[in-house]
Specification:
The chain is mainly alpha-helical. It has one domain. 69% of the residues lie in helices and 0% in strands. α1 runs antiparallel to α4 (66-101) and α3 (41-47) packs across α4 (66-101).
């Protein structure tokens, strides 16, 4: 196994682990701070989907749609992908710095 492949495997493990741990608490009414930080892009992605007002203009009320669910489900693996790329970047930078020092 080449160092690049090994680095990608380690980065995927490091990137997916916090997302999998945080995903266990998704159904909790009060998720932990760790879950809210790791999965912070999920509410952002859901807020980008437009919602229609089913209440009155004085008391607006919005209901989730299947598009909101799809946005939430799509953003969780996206979090893992972003964290994996970030971990790979840090691992590659660390390998380059240690190679330059030696």
């Amino acid at each position: 196994m080449t160092p690049r492949v090994r680095r990608w495997c380690l980065a995927a493990l490091v990137g997916c682990s916090p997302v999998l741990v945080a995903a266990r608490e998704l159904h909790s009414p009060d998720p932990s701070l760790f879950t809210r930080i790791v999965l912070a892009p999920v509410p952002l992605a859901v807020s980008l989907v437009p919602a229609s007002n089913i209440g009155t203009p004085e008391k607006p009320m919005y209901e989730g749609t299947p598009l909101h669910l799809l946005a939430a489900l799509a953003s969780v693996p996206l979090c893992a992908l972003v964290y994996s790329v970030f971990a790979y970047t840090l691992l590659a930078l660390g390998a380059r710095l240690t190679r330059d020092v030696a």
